[in-house]
Amino acid sequence: MTDRHSESVKEKLSLSLDEIIALNNKQQKQQQQKQQKQQQQQQQQQQAAAGPQRRRRNNSAAAAAAPYAQRGPRQPYFHNGIPAVGYSVKVLGLPVGLPWPRLEGMLRRAFGHCGAIIAVVPRRDGEAWIQFADVSACRVALAEMQSAKIGGQTVTVERVGVEGLGATESRQALLLLLLWGPPGGFRGPCGAGGPPLLIAILLLLLLLLLLL
């Protein structure tokens, strides 16, 4: 090692000043080119590694946004009453005493695989209605979610008489709404807080005229 260094020193001493400068410039240029090449290789490796991560992030964002693509109701939905149009099932036997946001989240998770959920509506203790975007989701819920466990309770799934699922039950539900009002409200035509009997009779007559 010492011999090589001494030879290099002797070689430089034998060169003229211009030759020494030219040699140093050449060595610096070669070193810069080597560093640039290393930097380019590092950048290429980083870009190659970032590609799959970027694709995974995009796929994750798309998957997270998918359940909310059809969140908005296509038609008006009455929160405390009968769905105007759509495809709904009612879930019976739900656990009572839970905060509604928590129970709603449990229902959305349990029934989410059936199809796109437009709305989940509380009816009364232990009962809620789920409105889907299409009738096929209702069929899946009726077929696969019978006796399912939600919050430790075994539930029963029944269809709600709305568009495409039977007009008789829909009329019965509408009649019940007219006579007894929305859940949690008045309890009867003549009960405390209920509508006057005359109004209830007029509403019933109007319903009968519409059904004839």
Automatic annotation (TrEMBL):
Classification via CDD domains: RRM_SF (cd00590)
Pfam families registered for this protein in UniProt: RRM_1 (PF00076)
Biased composition (Low complexity): 26-47, 59-73
Entry keywords, A to Z: Membrane, RNA-binding, Transmembrane, Transmembrane helix
Residue ranges crossing the lipid bilayer per the database entry: 192-211
InterPro entries assigned to the protein according to its UniProt record, in alphabetical order: Nucleotide-bd_a/b_plait_sf, RBD_domain_sf, RRM_dom
Region Disordered, residue ranges: 25-73
Molecular-function GO terms, alphabetical: RNA binding
All copies of domain RRM, residue ranges: 87-162
Name of the protein: RNA binding protein, putative
Organism: Eimeria necatrix
